Amino acid sequence: MLQDPTLERLLTFLRRSPTPWHATSNMARRLEQAGYRRLDETQAWSLSPGDRVYVTRNDSSLIALQLPSGKLETLRMIGAHTDSPGLRLKPNAAQAGHGWLQLGVEVYGGALLAPWFDRDLGLAGRVHVRRADGRTQGVLINVDRAIATIPNLAIHLDREANNGRALNAQTQMAPVLWQGGGETGFEGLLKRWLYEQHNLESVEVLAFELCLYDVQGASRVGIDGELIASARLDNLLSCFCAIEALLGGDGSQGALLVANDHEEVGSASASGAQGPFLGDVLRRVNAQCGDAGEEGLARLIQASRLVSCDNAHALHPNFPDKHDAGHGPTINGGPVIKVNANQRYATTSETAALFRELCREAGVPVQTFAARADMACGSTIGPLTAAELGVPTLDVGVPQWAMHSIRETAGSQDIDYLIRALTTFVDRRTLR
Fold this sequence. Notes:
Blueprint: H1 5-15, H2 20-33, E1 37-38, E2 52-57, E3 61-66, E4 76-81, E5 86-97, E6 100-108, E7 121-130, E8 136-148, E9 176-179, H3 185-198, E10 204-214, E11 219-221, E12 227-230, H4 233-248, E13 255-260, H5 277-289, H6 294-303, E14 305-309, E15 312-313, E16 336-338, H7 349-362, E17 367-369, H8 381-389, E18 393-397, E19 399-401, E20 408-411, H9 412-427
Parallel strand pairs: 1-2, 4-13, 4-14, 14-18, 15-19, 16-17
Antiparallel strand pairs: 2-3, 3-13, 5-6, 6-9, 7-8, 7-10, 11-12, 12-20, 16-18, 19-20
């Protein structure tokens, strides 16, 4: 199997990004290494033609902006999201019972629950503490070793398990963490990890947002390494491809990457696609670099295009009947244009035509997905961003299997295909 530097960067990004906060931090670090300057939403901004800047909100959403050398008149926007379905701890997480310290969880998003059983689980997220001097501070932690598991019930005790069993996340999915629970309990563990990872002593834990995750790392699978297997491919794979395209372009055009949090739970938050984050940034940028005022902003938005990137359902060889016969994208068959007549995807014939041209110019194959007429269709940040801003939008994505599982699968060739198409978009002089 040949080593591919791009795929190695992807695997590293996936391993180091177990939560939206870690993913955003890693993207910010990559941007800074490439010369991007961080902006603070609470401070005045000073922007000039040719600037490369980024801003985060809630530490879990990010917008990166490449300004043209001249006046800002149009933007090539790429959208993705940083969150993935999974299990998150409740605020009073510790549960003691039958000799074990367990953790109370709630399901985040539309997670496929069965694959969470019998996995080696780590814990990561954001913790806010009060230091000994009275200051409050938020820090990221990542316990990247197997500290918990959700054991399955033996088939001898549930003979109907293979015939389909409803799962109760409240009563059947509390991970076991510690036999006996020790004297300090879960808060004592948190303080231990805070000391180990940040050298924080004598702190009071005020609040946390913590996610369980599978510590099995991302890897290449298949005789020729034709597959990528990992948690959180939906949608960190799109975040990675977007960063690669933004940094790999020639820098001549106005370009923007927005990576929103909370897509998997509806996007209705200050940092979600249904919130004001992107609009706030565009207004501030346009006021300094474009034609100021509402009319100038409206012209900028209508002259721009947004490619919303979120993975698509690949044709499953064991379940081919789950796809419409004419719309079954194949793994390693190229990026997928996603279409839905009921606006679950934001693609129009105009924006689909633009993307087909981009793929033709990049020498990349392209596919189309539409759901069966008798099945419900998922959605993305595309329709929400289009509705909030009015920007012409299309939805595309890399085809994958096992969407929303604890471990998903995509094609290794499709990574390069999407990056090439998005780089062509970022560099394109005209958007019509």
